[in-house]
Amino acid sequence: LGESETSELTPPGPGYRAYRASDPAPIAASGATSVGPVVVHCSAGVGRTGCFIALCIGCEQLRTEDKVDVLGIVSRLRLDRGGMVENSEQYTFLHAALCMYNAIRNGRELPILPAITNLRNQFTGPLR
User: Which SMART domains does this UniProt record tie to the protein (predicted)?
Assistant: First the structure.
């Protein structure tokens, strides 16, 4: 949401920021520099929100443990809020995004579009 769109929703306070979901870089940066939790929410607060949170946790697991447990992450999130990561497409996205993140993190070039197409074909058949 733009600043004018959030003025009624924005609680006053130092350091508070609202960002558009289409611009995730400031969200990630604000979490690293701010005191307190980062609040993430989509319309229902489960699908896209769950993906974003799971992706952040998965990236952290890869950085600290050099492995990731997507099922474990989603299961733990669902204990706190049922329905996090709503469907198979979102779950597949998490796997693909974390694979790409890990490849880039390890300095490997990854042709993103062919990788996504290949992954999608494995689950749904050729793109139409």
Answer: PTPc_motif (SM00404)
